[in-house]
Design brief:
This protein is of the alpha+beta class. The chain has five domains: about 290 residues, Rossmann fold; about 120 residues, no CATH class; about 200 residues, Valyl/Leucyl/Isoleucyl-tRNA synthetase, editing domain (Isoleucyl-tRNA Synthetase, domain 2, Alpha-Beta Complex); about 110 residues, Orthogonal Bundle (Isoleucyl-tRNA Synthetase, Domain 1); about 60 residues, Ubiquitin-like (UB roll) (Roll), CATH 3.10.20. Helix content is about 35%, strand content about 20%. It has 27 helices and 32 strands. The chain is globular. The protein starts with a helix and ends with a strand. About 40% of the residues are buried. The protein binds one RNA strand through α8, β9, α12, β13 and α13.
Amino acid sequence: MVYNPREIEKKWQKYWDENGIFEPSNDFSKEKKYILSMFPYPSGKIHMGHVRNYSIGDAIARNYRKLGFNVLHPIGWDSFGMPAENAAIKNKTHPKKWTYENIDYMRNELNSLGLSFAKTREFATSDPLYTKHEQNLFIQMYNKGLVYQKSSKLNWCDTCQTVLANEQVEDGKCWRCDNLVQQREMPGYYLKITAYAQALLDDMKELKNGWPSQVLSMQENWIGRSEGLEFDFTLDEDSQEKLNHKFEKYTVFTTRPDTIYGVTYSALAPEHPIINHLIEHNLLDPSSVEKIKQMRQVGARDRAMAQKEGLALGINVIHPLTGKKIPVWVANFVLIEYGGGAVMAVPAHDERDFEFASKYGLSITQSISVNTKEFDGNCAICDYGVTINSGVFTGLSSSQAKEQIIAHFEKYGKGKKVINYKLRDWGISRQRYWGAPIPMIHCPNCGLVPEAIENLPVALPEDVVIDGEGNPLVKHPTWKHTICPTCKTQAIRETDTMDTFFQSSWYFLRYTTDASLWQESAFDRASSDYWMSVDQYVGGIEHAILHLLYARFFTKVLRDLGYTNASEPFENLLTQGMVLKDGSKMSKSKGNTVDPDSIIKQFGADTARLFILFAAPPAKELEWNDSAVEGAFRFIKRLADRSNNVSKVHTLPQIDHTKLPDTSKYARKKVYEALKKSQEVFTNGYAFNTLIAACMEALNALGVQEDKAVWSEGYFILLNILEPIIPHICWELSDSLFDLKNFTKIQIQEEVFDEAVVVLAVTINGKKRAEISVAKDASKEQIFAYAKEECAKWLVDQTLIKEIFVPNKLVNLVVK
RNA sequence: GCCCGGAUGGCGGAAUUGGUAGACGCAAGGGACUUAAAAUCCCUCGCUCAUUACGAGCGUGCCGGUUCAAUUCCGGCUUCGGGCACCA
């Protein structure tokens, strides 16, 4: 057969499409598999990363379909977001037009790869219907107290009149206009993900087997749970007086209560309320005020880089155990968001405190002794050890001291054991146009109220001016003016739109529901209960934290709101590696991209898919190699060519294995090894590269034998195994040879693995010296005798002290 | 700095619970077919020394250990990649 991928691929894509081959069944009594590759952002054209992502997911989906599962393998578009607005500014197009044109183009590109998507369930997150349900979910969350408004510091560009995401700030300057970025207090909406911090941590146990360990550990670090003591520092009389008795005490948090006797000062974050009071009442000299204001101006990122800085505030607190007076400082390294925005400082046993104390000449007291190293005044000792200089708690191990000191505080009501998390609530407000409007209304009478459900969706206006300055929704002449749903007076609509991670946090639930039900609900309960969780999720490692954590959070929230019974969205996660060329990531700016379209045009989709699955295991980085692509093409051509050796059958031919010549026996063994491999690969790690190698070996082995029946059997099976990887050619060949009857579960014929003769390695002291062929049922004694005979020359003048026999593997002779 | 993950030929990569290192492919070299080229097919291909021999030695980042046997397990390094980054 002459291999003509262009013709074959078009033919089968059309056939699959017209016959709805890949649509899931709504019969929920069947066993299901939900296979999902992360949906793409419609940036314009697909790239090799997409090809890899979708080839992996597609292979898995096709495999399960062939094994008889009801498979959901959907696709959609993560279609809100900034690039559409940037394109609008640059090309004077409308974001909507740009986005939906890109979707149309990319849909065709994905189509040309022959991906087995459930096309009837496709949607874009910018579709008003999606927005409608999403805004409803938002309101449910708001009503449950999971959404709140607060003001916090964000990156603000004065020239562009907009908030910038952290990644849009380069060297402290705006990425577009080079203006210095400021920190500006902005009101915004926050989702209370911190309320689920512990649940997110606890449920990671269920993901241990299905998720890569590094993703779990990244999430664990991100959530950042720590246990410690929270207690109050009471201000001394003079200080309270100085603060007009507005403050009596403040709270600090420590994970090292065992070092509490080493406290020599306390430090407040520049944003701490006590400092506000000091400034407002002119209790600090002007240069100090100026310095504090400067500290506050520095963004979180730059603050982490900055030198330690601070100054004494002229107030003191009382050490809760010693009663000693301790000076209070302001320090730029203390974060207002964490642990009350204040710390007890133990310079002897904390590096930051030490650095600060050294710079400002503050006193240092050692309270822990570690036998390996003694405090020498040059650096802090942060290890655990034994308490010294610690009053009644002296002489305890760190862990004992922790326990007893916490117990002491709790007994006297001076403090308590608490758990803190680094995880912060999720700010979802964006001052942009191309996003889902936050469905809230500011009413002069009722305050902040959600839009009425029957008025959803709050849709975006189409007639907007997008010039990169300010929020187009704010500038729109009429859009924001509305009526309060409660008191019916004139009110103002919220002009913030949602972070696009909001859309991608529940799209996988929407897919579970037949499109005929999309009008009424976000997703159908029975459908989501049937399809959830996603059995295999496939996507880039770059989403290890944010997207995957948000999606986990949403799933729990939606469960608690009664929408689903799933607690975790993704049972198994495969994070695919990047596609590289010349050692670095393919990117337009580096000019090292390979266009998938041109590869498909030149070699066909099957070749592209085969190469990308063969070149590396899915989780690893993949180095693009043009000549290896040609190698993949050659293999498919060879496969197609060998169909001449095959006669048309409908079932596996009956073969008397014992009567075959050795070459044919070997070929059958190779074929069934490949089938076995296929079963392993799809249930354990998806090493498609080894599966493809096994198929190549099998085809090679078939090629050196001539038995017609063995050829037909081998081909029948090989097409079955390869269908998930190179579907077009397999359907074409299977159609002409087997009437597609071979795309089903095939039993392994164990007889082909029974061999009369086994080859054993003979090693001496573990070093291979010979190979022997022995009858399968040969006795140990016979085998050792034969092995010694074969290795006679190595045994001269040696004393044999031990003989080891590993069945089917080797014989080891230990000599001295 | 902390956390995680790697390191195997010229290259991408294979190797059940420790049991014949280098499968499969790419590149390279040689040959067949052809007027020629392409395509296809066959052979060689870890390194070193030998080339009388189906020869020997060395080899999975480095050093050491456990074992009859280590790419695999343990301890200590080197190095590359990724993530987090003053979270008290």
